[in-house]
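Lab notebook, design round three. We kept the backbone fixed and only want residue identities now. Task for the bench partner: fill in a sequence for the structure below.
Input structure tokens:
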């Protein structure tokens, strides 16, 4: 622990700024993981198979009851909104599910872009810290005696490089975090589109239902 604190002090003020960026970024990542991976867990294929079996048999009350699952996955509301309008026109069913899908988008994409921003900030702050460190090092060299200049320059440059290395390290970690949650958000969105299509097909009988489920649902 003392070694880490010493490295942070050697790198200067910008090291602490980068540390702050990493803490904020990781906090956002863990919050998104909790929401997207835990709160929105759902076996989409099994859920749709159960619900659409009832829809095909025109057991709409059982289909709606099957939507009462302990999950905040938006697919549940999308499918439920379509089934509630089972006896209405196709366009009405489609619009209802589309509205639920669009309402779910902001929550699925919330704060994910901030992770990419934090990664870029970490890199830029690291470079800024390096430039400031080099300026300080050259100022110190100018004030040093001839015998002290080489040692002062080497020490100043190595200290300045700490911020670049730390900034890049934090940026790499945050970009990986961004990739993980962005992929999960995209997967949920794909399941919404596929589930909505399969539900619409089951309700209107446009094409064979079984083919629709397995063609559109991941």
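Proposed sequence:
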């Amino acid at each position: 622990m003392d070694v880490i604190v010493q490295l942070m002090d050697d790198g200067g003020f910008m090291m602490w700024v980068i540390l702050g960026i990493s803490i904020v970024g990781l906090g956002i990542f863990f919050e998104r993981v909790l929401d997207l991976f835990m709160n929105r867990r759902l076996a989409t294929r099994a859920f749709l198979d159960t619900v659409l079996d009832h829809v095909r048999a025109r057991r709409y009350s059982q289909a709606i009851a099957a939507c009462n699952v302990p999950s905040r996955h938006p697919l549940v509301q999308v499918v439920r909104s379509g089934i509630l309008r089972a006896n209405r026109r196709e366009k009405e069913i489609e619009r209802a599910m589309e509205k639920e899908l669009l309402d779910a988008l902001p929550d699925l994409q919330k704060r994910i872009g901030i992770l990419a921003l934090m990664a870029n900030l970490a890199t830029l702050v690291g470079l800024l810290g390096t430039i400031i460190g080099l300026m300080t090092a050259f100022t110190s060299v100018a004030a040093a005696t001839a015998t002290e200049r080489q040692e002062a320059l080497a020490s100043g440059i190595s200290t300045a490089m700490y911020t670049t290395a730390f900034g890049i390290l934090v940026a790499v970690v945050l970009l990986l975090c961004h990739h993980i949650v962005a992929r999960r958000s995209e997967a949920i969105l794909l399941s919404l589109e596929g589930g909505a299509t399969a539900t619409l097909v089951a309700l209107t009988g446009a094409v064979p239902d079984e083919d629709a489920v397995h063609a559109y649902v991941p």
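Keep this in mind before ordering anything: The chain has one domain: 2-216.
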